[in-house]
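Quick one: co-fold with magnesium ion.
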Amino acid sequence: MKVQAVELRRLAVPLVRPFRTSFGTQTDRDVLLVRVITDGADGNAECVALADPVYSSEYVAGAQAVITDHLAPRLFAAGEVTGRRVHSALGGVIGHRMAKAALETAVLDAELRGYGVSFAGYLGAVRDRVECGVSVGITSTLDALIEEVSGYLQQGYRRIKLKIEPGWDWEPVHAVRMAFGDDLLLQVDANTAYDMATAPRLRRLDEFELLLIEQPFVEEDIAGHAALAQTMSTPICLDESIVSAAVAADAVNRGACSIVNIKAGRVGGFLEAVRIHDVCAALGVPVWCGGMLETGVGRAPNIALAALPNFKLPGDTSASDRYFAEDITEPFVLEDGCVRVPTGPGIGVELRADIVEQMTTSVALLRP
Ligand code: NPQ
Ligand code: MG
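Sure, here it is.
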């Protein structure tokens, strides 16, 4: 297969409610769609970079620039490619994993459509539906939080994740435990908002028997997470820190985490995501599938990944309507707390051209 052109399309997709985390509040998703046009089928993917470099160093305009100036030219120069060859074709460029992941996923989508094989089949899925959790942003009051969580539980979500930061940690977790009881599967995500000075606040969460606490300290601080894990009964899970299978194995072996969040974009693609899945399985460490507020284009392959055997905890693989009034593909819907794994060729979903057009803010076509 030869990649003849790459289309980069930016969309402004409104969120159904503002999403507040320790790094800020978002009201819209600035989506970058990547389409590869080949001598066979076309392929589509979503780059998960956020509008601003506040979750990781990547951001959407930067991803667009590195694809335009560095990655697409290497892909064109590579000649005949498969999804598996994209990684080495782009290997001269350091970092920029979210940008690389989008290109690799788009090429895989094109390739698998040619074979008539689904992402789930290709990656090694063993389930036809996956259990869903939901990520709940920081709210202005505890009452508003309880109301929002209550709505998700009525819809059937099987696990709740609360975003926390210093000053919004013990109280919201306590309030949710009081309102919904000790059997609720509950976890928290700090998005790096703590340090050694504020770590005592985290130890107070041990009384709530949470499933895990996600990414308390900065990305680089493997040693700090290992030290924290020694002082807490709540399992530590890493998200931002885990940028490759090698880092995942190292973090686990150093005792920095006992559960791993996998996001294909953060680690450079679905093939590296499967390697993390495999190394964690070998080390006896459960994994779960994270989310980046993807549209259906990004959500579909995430759900295929989450159907692999070592995905032992419900993921942030929510239904489309958790984030969007209207998705740009056929929407993912919650059925008994689960979403169905797509079975069609490639990512298994199709773009709704009229909605995509309405939400488009720019289009660029890259050619050799
Ligand atoms: C996380 N995701 O696990 C990320 C963070 C994240 C579902 O909690 C807009 C605003 C897009 C905030 C994408 C979830 C975002 C965002 C991802 C936060 O750390
Ligand atoms: Mg996280």
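If it helps, The pocket of magnesium ion (ligand 2) is lined by residues 189, 191, 214-215, 239, 261, 290 (CB under 6 Å).
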